[in-house]
From TrEMBL:
Ranges for domain Band: 54-220
KW ATP-binding (keyword) present: no
Compartments where found: Membrane
Keywords: Membrane, Transmembrane, Transmembrane helix
SMART domains to which the protein is assigned, alphabetical: PHB
Annotated protein name in UniProt: SPFH domain-containing protein
Family matches, as Gene3D superfamilies: Band 7 domain
Principal cellular location given in the protein's record: membrane
Topology in the lipid bilayer: Single-pass membrane protein
Length: 288
């Protein structure tokens, strides 16, 4: 479990190191001129200078140091500035900044078995330095691999659209924020063991695979045409019904069943046809 440390300021230790270095130079110069004892003192001062200098560390903003003492976890320093720690501690640098991960485009099968291409972009950062440092081997590689696994699981859990599954409550193409929320939760669950915090995750690319893209486009066009024709027919039937009622109410003309059928046929052809109707002059009667 992560433990945050508050080490002592390093400015006093820095001054002490400078004094030791100055003393090492002074005694070395004096030893050359006077006695070998000064040289020995100079060497001791220099060794102490190197020892205490190792305990100084500078932590940049949004960075941290994970400290170990002969294999035992001591704590994590998250404050920024100059600090002094036990020189025998070993430290591991770890960034706490937010990072972008643009996942590669994956080819997977959706819930209906259709091959699709999908890619995501996510924003993440290290939240627990202990887990990131010790619970996984390399947390950056872990994030990359688990994000791909989460995307594949998401794609296989939902259909691309509702062409084949009319009762699908959520689809990848129309899910929007709901799909992104599910993706974020999936990534959070998978990356929690590495101490990773998911700040945002979005689908950046979604399309049918190239081998079926043409067929699916034709299917979508056919569906759109059928839907449009359905609306046209519904409107035409309503207009024909209105025309017959108006003719009957205004007593403009008396129509028997055969004439009504002919009129309905003509109106439906005019209203539902793709091209403009060509008028035809009938010089006779309906029965001749």
């Amino acid at each position: 479990m992560e433990k945050v440390l508050k080490p002592m300021s390093g400015y006093l230790a820095l001054v002490f190191c400078l004094i030791l270095f100055a003393g090492a130079v002074y005694f070395f110069v004096s030893g050359v001129e006077h006695s070998i004892t000064y040289v020995i003192i100079s060497m001791l001062c220099f060794l102490l200078f190197c020892f205490f200098l190792k305990g100084l560390m500078i932590i940049q903003p949004n960075h941290s140091r994970v400290l170990n003492f002969f294999g035992k976890y001591v704590g994590t320093v998250k404050d920024n500035g100059l600090f002094f720690i036990n020189p025998l501690y070993s430290s591991q640098k770890m960034s706490l900044r937010s990072e972008n991960l643009q996942g590669q485009t994956l080819k997977v099968n959706d819930k209906m078995g259709n091959p699709i291409e999908i890619a995501v972009v996510m924003v993440w950062k290290v939240g627990d330095t202990y887990k990131a440092a010790f619970d996984v081997e390399r947390y950056s590689d872990f994030v990359r691999m688990q994000s791909e696994a989460a995307v594949r699981h998401l794609a296989m859990s939902f259909p691309y659209d509702n062409l084949e599954d009319d009762h699908a409550p959520i689809t990848l193409r129309e899910g929007g924020d709901k799909i992104n929320s599910i993706l974020e939760q999936e990534l959070t669950d998978r990356l929690a063991k590495a101490g990773i915090v998911i700040q945002e995750a979005r689908i950046s690319h979604l399309a049918y695979a190239s081998e079926i893209a043409g067929a699916m486009l034709q299917r979508q066009q056919a569906t759109a045409i059928v839907a449009a024709r359905t609306k046209i027919v519904e409107g035409a039937v309503g207009m024909v019904d209105l025309a017959l009622k108006k003719l009957s109410e205004e007593n403009i003309v008396e129509l028997d069943d055969e004439r009504k059928a002919a009129m309905v046929s003509n109106l439906m052809v005019v209203l539902c046809g793709e091209k403009a109707a060509q008028p035809i002059l009938n010089a006779g009667t309906l029965y001749n």
